[in-house]
């Protein structure tokens, strides 16, 4: 919700105006270690509260987690804008590689997620993710860096990359360098 609101330059309320309920996770993008908020009609929230208690949910001394969520919310716009910028940089870098192994649609990169097309049969998205995660002596010798990049094989010909507050612009450049290295090795 907050990624969409920042990307569209609107208040979250505008996006959710026709929703009966909204759940917002504070650890997704906001960087809090845990926590979420649920909003909706009073009866709905009361029932959710009752069911949570029935299932054993509840926390004591949750103030520290609430403080982390508050900081995440206060810094959300700047943090998420940085994540979106890093994602777009990664997508542009993929285009600049001009590798037959992978491609991306720049107009589709609106927030902190990049869906990378992996056409053909080899490497598959899962194999490409494994290569991006693995670190080799050859990589260290050739690039001067030992970088492990975690990506997710999303579909038969797609993998997903997601940015969050702990992935910097420098990390993004390292990931692009790693992808260039992997692409060269796969083409050899």
From TrEMBL:
Gene Ontology CC, one term: cytosol
Molecular functions per Gene Ontology: L-allo-threonine aldolase activity
Any Gene Ontology biological process: L-threonine catabolic process
Name the record gives this protein: THA2 aldolase
Gene: Tha2
Gene3D superfamilies the UniProt entry points to: Aspartate Aminotransferase, domain 1 (3.90.1150.10), Type I PLP-dependent aspartate aminotransferase-like (Major domain) (3.40.640.10)
Keywords per UniProt: Lyase, Pyridoxal phosphate
Domain called Aromatic amino acid beta-eliminating lyase/threonine aldolase: residue spans: 2-117
Family, as annotated: Belongs to the threonine aldolase family.
Essential cofactor(s): pyridoxal 5'-phosphate
Highest taxon above the source species: Eukaryota
Keyword tRNA-binding: no
